[in-house]
Amino acid sequence: MQQGMRMVSSVAEQITEKIDTMPAGERRAAQTLIAAYPLIGLKTVAEFSQQAGVSSPTILRFVARLGFQNYPEFQSALQDELAAQLQSPASRTTTSSPLPASTAPILEAVLENIRETFRHISDRQLADIVAQLAGPKGHVYLVGGRFTDPLARYMAAHLNLIRPDVTHLVGQESLWRDKLIDMGKRDTLLIFDIRRYQDSLIRFAEKAHARGATIILFTDQWLSPIARFARHVIAGRTAVPSAWDSSSALFVAAETVIGALTSKLETEAARRIRAIEDLR
Questions:
Q1: Domains and CATH numbers, the chain
Q2: What is the pTM assigned to this prediction?
Q3: Average pLDDT estimate for 218-244
């Protein structure tokens, strides 16, 4: 991959870029698609429009705004994304392309992932997430999947230093469920989930959402099903020339949120850090 070459944006990323400029009907179509991504887009125009509560021409205008020539082209892109969602490390080891013999291709892919991820994160989106995490009332819970929970643990360690009432949910799913009794409308659940998406996280997110908790999701460009319950979604690029996905872009996104939150809570964070140091 040549340096600076842009990857093809996913449909979800294109929606993120353009949703603020969409008319109300197209915005409803976008929100409906994200809520059942990507499956609702694989239905007929009539079925999509009925579920979104808009007209069929509105769906076609929405598809055109995303840059597609027609509805079949839009569906073809979603089918490719669905196939990518379902890939496993085992399937990626059988690719016809050999794995790189040096670190350079993976390094360049990771750097491009970071660039592309941040191209789709707006200042407004970052500000909204920071405002949610900076709220003086309510608890912040963090959890991740098999490979992403280290990101949740890392982020929780920082948040604990700059604000009170932060909990990293660890261990078995049954232990997470025990925390649901304490979750309510003032609370925030921050989840990391990338392909192949973890059923236990999806079930937990659904129950937390039902209790009124605000969900912030860090996921990949193909969107975890948790997106249907999330108020805020950070979609990071994860694919690299390897059998394994890379969480590097999500790690940098998490650090960006941590840095912005520390700046927003500057006085309170400094006072809290000094108090913690005094107790050591």
A1: 11-85 (1.10.10.10), 117-278 (3.40.50.10490)
A2: 0.78
A3: 91
